[in-house]
Amino acid sequence: MTEIFGNIGMGTLGLLFLLLALVVILFILLHAESRKRQALEERLARFMDGGDGMSLEDSIVKMFEEHDELLKSQEDNRKDISRLYNRIRTMIQKVGVVKYDAFNQMGGNLSSSIALLDEDNNGFIINTVQSVDGCYSYVKEIRDGNPDIDLGKEEAEALEKAMNFGASSGAGAAGETGKAAGRKKPRTRDRDTIQLNVNRYGR
């Protein structure tokens, strides 16, 4: 090795200086890397520790626990909304009222037909007939917008009002009209028939 450096004009002393210079350079590079590593460790420590001393791991665990609770709450809310919707669907939502004078002998239109329907047009009609002999009420069941027995003129009118309840204009009215067109037309009876029945049951 000495012969090689001797051939290029560098003696033992020159070789020592060269090695010393290399050691200094390596020391400087090692110190620089050490500073970088220390800075990285400090940044990692600040990242891992929260302002209140909570570690990042604890924060992540808490976040996942809150996420699970949120999902459970969301599912509970969805079930509650579904139950409420099913209950509301069968509640009375549509009303049709027609007042009339059953026998043309009492003023004020004291007789009335009231149709009460749910969202699917299921419900009943209450027909109250007022006469000089007394007051009589009849209830008729409605399924899918169709009566179980024949309806009087005012009862049919009340049923039609109830089925069109809330469908005042636009697409809602068009949609309700289309539904009504697909139903059977309620069977009606004239007022004379109602008067005969009232007279028969009232005397």
Plain-language structure description:
This protein is of the alpha+beta class. Among the domains are: 1-29, no CATH class; 94-202, no CATH class. 56% of the residues lie in helices and 19% in strands. A five-stranded antiparallel sheet has the order 1-2-3-4-5, with helices on one face. The chain has a two-stranded parallel ribbon with strand order 6-7. The N and C termini lie far apart (141 Å).
Unreliable sequence segments: 169-178, 190-203
**Structural class assignment:** alpha+beta
- List the helices and strands in order: HHHEEEEEEHHEH
Please tally the helical runs, counting DSSP H or I stretches of 4 or more residues: 6
Q: How far apart lie the N and C ends?
A: 141 Å
Describe the strand arrangement of the main beta sheet, using strand numbers. 1-2-3-4-5
Strand content bin: 15-25%
Main β-sheet: number of strands, strand sense, barrel status?
A: 5 strands, antiparallel
What does the average pLDDT come to?
A: 77
Helix content: 55-70%
Task: Report the principal-axis shape.
Answer: rod-shaped
> What's the total number of strands?
7
Using only C-alpha atoms, the radius of gyration works out to: 46 Å
From the structure above, extract its key features.
single chain, 203 residues, alpha+beta, 5-stranded antiparallel β-sheet, two-stranded parallel sheet, 6 helices, disordered C terminus
In short:
With 203 residues, the chain is an alpha+beta fold.
Describe the secondary-structure layout.
Layout: H1 2-7, H2 12-48, H3 56-89, E1 94-100, E2 111-117, E3 123-131, E4 134-143, E5 146-147, E6 151-152, H4 153-163, H5 170-182, E7 188-189, H6 191-202
Parallel strand pairs: 6-7
Antiparallel strand pairs: 1-2, 2-3, 3-4, 4-5
